[in-house]
């Protein structure tokens, strides 16, 4: 396993995991649009957990969503996917740290360590996919309402929280792919060829056995 690729993959996965933690509490997943408004007295913005408003004086007021079951289905699904992303990223970091060559946690069995690091790469890819699905689904609903001329409610635009989520998913997937390409899943190591000190040559399997048999047969007549 290439140690440099391991370190790069670990850094990418860690950054993706940190950015998931930044994106989840970020309040600006969607922000009310100013398109078509002559006078804007307040700005509305929401995330997965609360809805906020900022007036012209800069005072902000936030309220948590009162009921989980009363929320839209895509918000509930986005919450679950983002939480799953954090959990998968944690497993990926632990598996990668154990499976790295420079780590002593897995002993000296580099084949086993490579497999553990490969599992960490799979966890990173799953983390990135959960994050990408969550933020993309949320963004799809925002754009669907924005371009719907018959939508009666407040129209929103994409907030910075979604862009952080997209960056997080991209980093996690890249880190997982790097780990998978760096891992060697060899099941066994090749045994060295026997060395014949009398001739100074190396023989493999059947050839060495034939040479030994002929030597013993000649010695029997001495």
TrEMBL record:
Function of the protein: Claudins function as major constituents of the tight junction complexes that regulate the permeability of epithelia.
Coarse class of the protein's main subcellular location: other
Subcellular localization: Cell junction, Tight junction; Cell membrane
Gene3D superfamilies: 1.20.140.150
Signal peptide: none
MF annotations from Gene Ontology: structural molecule activity
Protein name: Claudin
Gene Ontology CC: one annotated term: plasma membrane
Keywords: Cell junction, Cell membrane, Membrane, Tight junction, Transmembrane, Transmembrane helix
Family annotation (PANTHER family): CLAUDIN
InterPro entries per the UniProt record, alphabetical: Claudin, Claudin_CS, PMP22/EMP/MP20/Claudin
Residues passing through the membrane, by range: 7-24, 80-100, 121-143, 163-183
Protein family (similarity comment): Belongs to the claudin family.
Gene: cldn15a
Superkingdom field: Eukaryota
Membrane topology note: Multi-pass membrane protein
């Amino acid at each position: 396993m290439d140690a440099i690729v391991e370190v790069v993959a670990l850094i990418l996965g860690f950054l993706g995991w940190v950015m998931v933690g930044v994106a989840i509490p970020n309040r600006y997943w969607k922000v009310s649009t100013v398109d078509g408004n002559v006078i804007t007295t307040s700005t509305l913005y929401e995330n997965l957990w609360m809805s906020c408003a900022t007036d012209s004086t800069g005072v902000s007021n936030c309220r948590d969503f009162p009921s989980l079951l009363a929320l839209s289905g895509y918000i509930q699904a986005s919450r679950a996917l983002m939480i799953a992303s954090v959990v998968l990223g944690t497993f990926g970091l632990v598996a990668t740290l154990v499976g790295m060559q420079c780590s002593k946690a897995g002993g000296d069995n580099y084949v086993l360590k490579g497999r553990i690091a490969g599992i960490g790469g799979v966890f990173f890819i799953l983390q990135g996919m959960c994050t990408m699905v969550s933020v993309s689904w949320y963004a799809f609903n925002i754009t669907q309402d924005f371009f719907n001329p018959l939508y009666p409610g407040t129209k929103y635009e994409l907030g910075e929280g979604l862009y952080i989520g997209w960056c997080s998913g991209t980093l996690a997937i890249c880190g997982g792919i790097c780990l998978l390409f760096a891992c060697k899943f060899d099941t066994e190591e090749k045994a060295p060829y026997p060395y014949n000190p009398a001739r100074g040559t190396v023989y493999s399997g059947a050839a060495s056995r034939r040479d030994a048999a002929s030597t013993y047969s000649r010695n029997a007549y001495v």
